[in-house]
């Protein structure tokens, strides 16, 4: 059995890599920094996509698709955005290969097929989309424009980690256009709330919603809203962002509309995205030393039935009955009829891949009219009557979903610490970890100094943050509120 | 009203472009040959994806995701495949931009950020996937491996047309690995059958299944199966292909497995794909001079309700009742309450975008307990009792789906012509168009000569083709069966 995960206390980072590889979620590829998302991992991502897509459509958005490439002249039009991404851009310079005359069977880039203008592989699509919106928007009647795209993007990161930071990743990016500033801000807030709802209700991952500091904003944004989650090792994960872009892109691409008073005005913009990074968050919120733990609402297979010790006619019959009852309730279930593997081996395998509920059907138990039900989250085993089993499992899946959220939230809440001095700040950071609420004087200079000395960053200024007079932990200058610090992925 | 389509008889090609643009399906972009798929077009593609994805899963496939980029050394490993795509590859050579010292605010490719090995933007993923499969496959127990990927690919085509031939397009590509040749061939045939079923049952587009000649095979395949559809202008469209790849990729990437006799063997492969090109096929199979015609099973909105002349309380009430009845039946419906547009304008707009059924609710009709129902396919209008309207519409949608298929099939069947001489061949091609069944001597030389003199290609050798002695129309050499020729997109 290929289990043998590094334990979390021994080496959290190695444990993460072990889970991703041994639960067959993803793997490195032949291309530097690019991952292969394996079927086990992709099935979870598909479930995430399905729920998110539904939530986007329920809030009035439609999907579209824009080109993978951005001509350099468009890419550089919004200067802050361009500057923010310039250092990590994959660039297409040629459009043809030819036979390499020096080596039979080998190809080389054809120097005669150089593009007149280089193409940037999109690191994000504001530039190509706002250049398109110029043709779509003429008057206030064309607004709001509420568009989302599911796509791959490329950012040439130097240090990569499966799901968390990869050169290519999958994401969705919403790009909306509005007639007024207020409406655009409302959209920005609405979408960070959609992300928070998805994270908490589906991923069972509690998040803190907040606003980024100027220094941590998306390149080209006026304001960036974020959801921040806490991983089991006490590090934060930025799990989704929603940007109020002001009129920056409208001005860079000259996107104006005729307002109701017949005057030309620049359009107001938002953009918002979540990515396959969420997979990393899911893993590091719930999983344990035995493997992956997946919240039932996102689990590709919610229930597995294992015959003990082997399938036989009687067990098959009970299993088939349970399967059809569960399927009628919309619960996904599989029956493992493999005769070559022992039950213990199977149990460990299903724990490793995180199936929320396991049902063991044994011959002797059946004589008493009972079966064994095991939940992945707590590893409890219960002896349950076969009669009414599907209702029991249905409720159990809900309980697991709730328990995972509550457990993660209790951990998160225990790991929000208020500190008032730099000394305390460093001590909490080095010992307990987690989020730290501390006063900050509001300057980028202080923010950077704290980061340089502690590696902690300001994750956000939480929404509905209570105001409170205090002094900046670094400079002692006055502050009106605490902000949320953490070391982060 | 922005209708004014070119008529099909005046200029079929211009009519196609007009529909794509005026029904807002897609548009050209700032990137040469790359399209923007607009929300109206993307919604149809999403419906196609949904049904195809379900059919793939029902036949045992799972989804995964592989990198966008293929290192040049992997790309060239399977020589025929590499040769087939080398001339249309977008190549990434650099991974960073920097400020252009000669011009403030401009960026340039950083010459210090040249990749050691160039990356090809995938034109198809056999190379990167088979390089990955080497690590996934060890023994016969790992087979079959049945994986599909939804992705974007890039082929630097010189002459592009929206949906039909674009530099970047969206598609799915299945890549399967098998222990035996027979099993791989079975899979290849199964998937061309899945495509045919999808084309006929969902797109209402009749297709001929067949095998490509050696000359028209996918680069690197042993055999290519295809579905070929006929467009309204008498030209064929290759709508989907399924390839038996033999052991070519397994050998190029050294993918072997331990068979049941404990011996190493090379794995057998298939690949198969359909793309956003299907959107072009859908348009050119059903649409007319008034706009798009979408089969009900793929229509994002199946029914639209228009108040005549304007919404009022009474009409709203009836509309809401009809909507909830239709939605309970799983039918998508919208109610157009816009007071600023006249009904005639709305009718034309909904014809242009192809909503299958339009219900007009007028004040006077309501007094008689009736409403007007118009079907998009035949443009017939019926006066129908409000009572039982949802059952009527449900049946009507099925009838439209069936009628569209039958109409297209009648046209297609009328346009399959048997000819026995080169003279007849040319005459049918220039006057009637469509598919031509003719004898061919089986040589690539003849095939190319016919193409060069007539622009017609061999679309396929139909499956279950009746054997029949005859003489090649070009050379007079003996032939055992007729093959299917046409001019093609």
Q: Any descriptors?
A:
homodimer; 3 domains; eleven-stranded mixed sheet; Translation Initiation Factor IF3; 28% strand; 489 residues; 27 strands; Rossmann fold; alpha+beta; BirA Bifunctional Protein, domain 2
Write the layout of secondary structure elements.
The structure is a homodimer.
Chain A: H1 12-22, E1 26-28, E2 35-37, H2 39-58, E3 62-63, E4 69-71, H3 72-75, H4 79-85, E5 91-94, E6 97-99, E7 107-109, E8 114-121, H5 126-136, E9 145-154, E10 168-178, H6 181-201, E11 208-211, E12 223-230, E13 236-246, H7 248-252, E14 256-258, E15 264-266, E16 268-275, H8 277-286, E17 303-308, H9 313-328, E18 333-335, H10 343-353, E19 357-362, H11 363-367, E20 370-375, E21 381-385, H12 389-414, E22 416-418, H13 422-431, E23 435-439, H14 444-454, E24 457-462, E25 470-471, E26 478-479, E27 482-486
Parallel strand pairs in A: 3-9, 17-18, 17-19, 22-23
Antiparallel strand pairs in A: 1-2, 4-8, 5-8, 6-7, 9-10, 10-16, 11-12, 11-24, 12-13, 13-16, 14-15, 19-20, 20-21, 23-27, 24-27, 25-26
Major protein interface: A-B, 62 and 62 residues
| Gyration radius of chain A, rounded | 26 Å
Tally of strands of chain A:
27
Helix content of chain A: 25-40%
Low-pLDDT regions of chain A:
none
Question: What spatial form of chain A do the alpha-carbon principal axes imply?
Answer: globular
Main sheet: strand order of chain A: 3-9-10-16-13-12-11-24-27-23-22
Identify the quaternary structure here: homodimer
- Looking at the structure, the CATH topology of the largest domain in chain A is BirA Bifunctional Protein, domain 2
Domain module tally of chain A = 3
If you average the pLDDT of chain A, what whole number results? Answer: 97
Percentage of residues in strands of chain A: 25-35%
Number of helices of chain A: 14
Largest sheet of chain A: 11 strands, mixed
